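JOB MANIFEST
job_type = single_chain_structure
chain_count = 1
residues = 242
[input]
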Amino acid sequence: MPPASDAGPPLPARPILHYPFDGDARNTGVLATPYNAQGVAVLYVPGRFNQAVAFDTAVAWSYLVLPNTVGPLSEGSDYTIALWVLAREPAADALAFRQELFSFRSAAAEGKPGGGLECFVEAGGGALQLCYDAAPVVSDCVEVLKLDAEWHHLVFRHDGAVDGQGADVEVYVDGARRVTLPNPSRGVIFSTRQQQSMLLGQKSGFALDELKIFNRVFDEPEQCAQVVGGLWNPAERRCRLP
């Protein structure tokens, strides 16, 4: 009879970057000080968990920068970006501008579309969109979510098992797969050619909580448990939110 294993269950996956936004924006992932977030005129408000970072709707240039984030994302072909988002009412004059949830801006690469991602609400309001962003234009957008005054959990999943760094981007909303941003040209999304930082919240009324970036992807039960922090229902194949 083989000896009993004392290995126990697998350890939880640890994000390479984790910003809990509990009164400060310091990185608590496995990377060091150069990845600490830098806030400009940001606020801290009641969050989905503890506190959340919010953007001052009276200040047009209230935003958050996560420096050097493109580097780790460009090193492999699998990554998962996750966060909680709440739509707060923006200032009236802010509606004249695009409200950025996040932006990774990129120079066009070898004539291919794609390169960089941008998630935003267009000027005048409407639904949250995800697009490729080869500066100065965006293309191939998909609608992610019609925002309301509730917290929603978003996951952006890039599985490069087949297409490497030019795979499609799958979007999950509140634990369920919602939409896919296709990448027919297979253009590389993250590369050292582009702006190296992630910009969040510019000219928006968003509040954000628990932003995590992993350098891997998960199957749906794992993603529910380790990324969302929820409970997977195998009978219904659904994720119950925490």
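[summary]
Confidence is low (pLDDT under 50) at residues 1-9.
Helices lie at 70-74, 220-228.
exit_status = 0
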